From TrEMBL:
Protein's name according to its UniProt entry: Ig-like domain-containing protein
Localization: Cell membrane
Lineage summary: Eukaryota, Metazoa, Chordata, Craniata, Vertebrata
Domain Ig-like, residue spans: 1-88, 92-179
Native species: Monodon monoceros (Narwhal)
Region: Disordered, residue numbers: 15-43
């Protein structure tokens, strides 16, 4: 079902004697107002729930109210019977993380885009309105259900700039801009008191000879 729709769950117990629908405290609403129903997300707290006997109506259902719902029925003859139903709420993607990164020339760089969606999002990457595809020289795309990575195997000056991550499913799409920027590296040079090359080797030999003579 889609978010913001009204959802109706039904729970019926039989035969005679008519089971008494148990009333449990749960994450749906405080106290006993749920009738036989329990369950849902811990964040679903009471909003939009209407319960009457065997029915549980969830008005304007949200993705936070996805989860397992439980109905329990019992009478004086048999042990309580519990049934569970899983409620899945479909919703369009929203990008939860998209951060730029700095990489020196010649190193490996990765841009990462995370998106939550049901069904899972499909990802696409663009630069200057041109789609980047797997197999482009020096570029690798790794896609998972909620995560996409754009990997530069050997960063060049040409690779720096703004990239667009697009996440989409059948309910909609969204995008975010991510920047790959240059980080300068500082070369270390020998200073005073630092001996390099052959001078270093000769100094080592002289030190070894002095120790031996002593």
């Amino acid at each position: 079902m889609r978010g913001l729709e009204t959802t109706l769950l039904f729970c019926y117990g039989g035969p005679s004697p008519v089971p008494e629908q148990s009333r449990r405290q749960s994450s749906l609403v405080p106290g006993d107002a749920n009738g036989p129903w329990a369950g849902g997300s811990q964040d679903s707290a009471a909003v939009g729930f209407v319960s009457e006997d065997e029915y549980l109506e969830i008005q304007g259902i949200t993705r936070e109210q996805s989860g397992d719902y439980e109905c329990s029925a019992s009478n004086d003859v048999a042990a309580p019977v519990v049934r569970r139903v899983k409620v899945t709420v479909n919703y369009p993607p929203y990008i939860s993380e998209a951060k730029g990164t700095g990489v020196p020339v010649g190193q490996t760089g990765t841009l990462q885009c995370e998106a939550s969606a049901v069904p899972s999002a499909e990802f696409q990457w663009y630069k200057d309105d041109k789609r980047l595809v797997e197999g482009k020289k020096g570029v690798k795309v790794e896609n998972r259900p909620f995560l996409s990575k754009l990997i530069f195997l050997n960063v060049s000056e040409h690779d720096y700039g703004n990239y667009t991550c697009v996440a989409s499913n059948k309910l909609g799409h969204t995008n975010a801009s991510i920047t790959l920027f240059e980080v300068k590296t500082t070369a270390l040079t020998p200073g005073k008191g630092c001996i390099a090359g052959k001078d270093n080797e000769n100094a080592s030999y002289r030190l070894a000879a002095m120790l031996k003579n002593n």
